[in-house]
TrEMBL record, chain A:
UniProt keyword Transport present: no
A cellular component annotation (GO) from this entry: Ctf18 RFC-like complex
Pfam families documented for this protein: Dcc1
Identification of the protein by name: Sister chromatid cohesion protein DCC1
Protein origin, superkingdom: Eukaryota
From TrEMBL, chain B:
Protein name: CTF8 protein
Organism: Hippolais icterina
Taxonomy, superkingdom: Eukaryota
Phylogenetic placement of the source organism: Eukaryota, Metazoa, Chordata, Craniata, Vertebrata
Ranges in coiled-coil conformation: none
A Gene Ontology cellular-component term: Ctf18 RFC-like complex
Localization per record: Nucleus
Length: 376, 118
């Protein structure tokens, strides 16, 4: 081959390996969109994991799996290596530039966005649910209590994902520690509020905070009354006063859980009757309020319903499907969706999950899904 | 749990480096490390095509703007802190790489003397 000097720019960069080059102390991290900007803004990323877990990388609000990608090529990193544009802009510069290669690698860290591993969060907080100020347990409790910092050092997720999940599970901060309420205590608080709404004949969409705190403050701590209103209502301000629009679906769902947890399963029609009678005046119960909480068995005679909470099921995709197929051999898409929805990665659909982890067939004219492998 | 912080040590703009990607291996002419050895000369044509001369070979490449930039991380040495919650290590982001020079054509030997046909 020949090279015509007339076709070349005047400057030449002589590349040589720097003294540290073979050291292997440098490594490359491929950045997903947004991460580059984070680093340039001076923010840090954190790699987290227990010794027996795969490492994840967390930004302020996202979590990524880390994997080494091998390339058969040599990747050399050259500080100050100039591109043609930079050379053209600097036309008067010295024609021979000596540049050092700072390091080289045949592989790099690759990132893939993943859903945060938050099941551990619920597990940690459920070690010691808050049973109210009168409970003897808190004083003598030997269980750990967790601050935000503690959680960050134990959960493979970003800070924002953790804080968001704490809100989703209605956790509250008591004396600086994150706590979830013991379910019975939670129902006791809810009951105080719904009874008060009934006796005061307040509309469910306009429950005044101040009056609640005044009337119930002698029975329960004010923070707990406000917490239960925040958990089961939507806060808004009207003419300078704080009100709550009570969340019918959430209240009905909680009452259903309270009824269902007392037995293995219930006669469906009996349950529906008792359930409707147990919810506050003006609220209507519907089975779709129980998605991810209870499962109806329409093949049994009589039809039955039983408690099945999605948060009690495994977090790993394959284990989740194994567990679900162990409970019921064949599922319709409608029935299984609430129990696999949370597994969907960014832009992944329930349909895609079913294609990957299940096999479909027709049963009495209806499409059903079963396991791809035998379940013992 | 192990927590390793990845952050830059400087305030202000991060250094921008360039990646040079070569096919295969680079070996030193003499035995020993690559450290200190010359790799070759990097030229650009007037059209901006990078040309690398390594030994008596010419490699033609192209300038690629990386869709996913790289961060160059250097591990900070030192004993890990005993605190269970505190960071257990630190990778410093030394530079960002947003551009690479990709050389994937077969190197062509430079022939200085072409014998004439008799």
């Amino acid at each position: 081959a020949k090279l015509n000097p007339a076709e070349l720019l005047p400057a030449v960069q002589c590349l040589s390996f720097g003294p540290q080059a073979g050291g292997g102390e440098c490594c490359l991290l491929q950045l997903e969109p947004g991460l580059c900007a984070e680093l340039e803004a001076g923010r840090s990323l954190v790699i987290r994991g227990e010794k027996d877990e795969h490492a994840v990388l967390c930004s302020k609000d996202k979590t990524y799996d880390m994997k080494i990608a091998d390339t058969s090529n040599m990747l050399l990193f050259v500080p100050g290596c100039k591109t043609p544009e930079e050379l053209n802009a600097d036309a008067a510069s010295c024609n021979i530039i000596h540049s050092q290669i700072a390091g080289f690698s045949k592989n790099y860290w690759e990132l893939r966005r993943r859903r945060p591993k938050l099941k551990k969060l619920r597990k940690l907080l459920m070690e010691d649910p808050y049973e109210g100020p009168d409970s003897q347990k808190d004083q003598t409790s030997t269980f750990s209590k967790y601050t935000t910092e503690d959680l960050l050092s134990l959960i493979q997720a970003s800070e924002e994902e953790i804080l968001h999940q704490l809100q989703v599970i209605d956790a509250c901060k008591i004396e600086g520690y994150w706590r979830v309420l013991d379910f019975d205590y939670e129902m006791k608080l809810l009951n105080h509020v719904t009874q008060l709404i009934d006796s005061e004949s307040w509309p469910l969409s306009k429950v005044p905070l101040c009056a609640c705190l005044e009337e119930l403050g002698s029975l329960e701590p004010r923070e707990m009354i406000e917490h239960i209103l925040l958990s089961y209502g939507r806060k808004y301000v009207d003419a300078g006063e704080v009100f709550f629009e009570m969340r019918e679906d959430k209240i009905c769902r909680a009452i259903a859980q309270m009824l269902l947890q007392n037995a293995v399963k219930f006669n469906l029609s009996e349950f529906e009757e008792v359930w409707q009678q147990s919810v506050p005046e003006g609220m209507t119960t519907r089975l779709d309020q129980l998605q991810g909480l209870a499962l109806v068995d329409r093949s049994s005679r009589p039809e039955t319903i039983f408690l099945l909470k999605v948060e009690d099921l495994p977090e790993d995709n394959q284990e989740r499907f194994n567990s679900l197929f162990g409970i019921r051999q064949k599922w319709t898409e409608v029935d299984i969706t609430p129990y696999i929805q949370d597994l969907c990665a960014e832009k992944q659909t329930v349909g895609a999950l079913l294609t990957k982890y299940a096999r479909s067939s027709m049963l009495n004219g209806v499409k059903v899904y079963n396991s791809r492998r035998p379940i013992s | 749990m192990v927590q390793i912080i990845v952050s830059s040590s400087v305030t202000g703009a991060l250094a921008q480096w360039v990646l040079v990607e070569l096919q295969g291996e680079v070996e030193p002419r003499q035995s020993g490390d690559l450290a200190g050895s010359l790799l070759g000369d990097l030229h650009y044509t007037c059209e901006g095509v990078p040309v690398l001369i390594v030994g008596h070979h010419i490699l033609y490449g192209k300038v690629v703007q990386l869709e996913k930039p790289f961060a160059v991380l250097v591990k900070q040495g030192g004993a890990p802190q005993p605190s269970p919650a505190g960071p257990h290590g630190h990778y410093t982001v030394t530079a960002l790489i947003k551009t690479k020079l990709l050389f994937k054509t077969r190197p062509k030997p430079i022939i200085t003397h072409v014998p004439k046909k008799v």
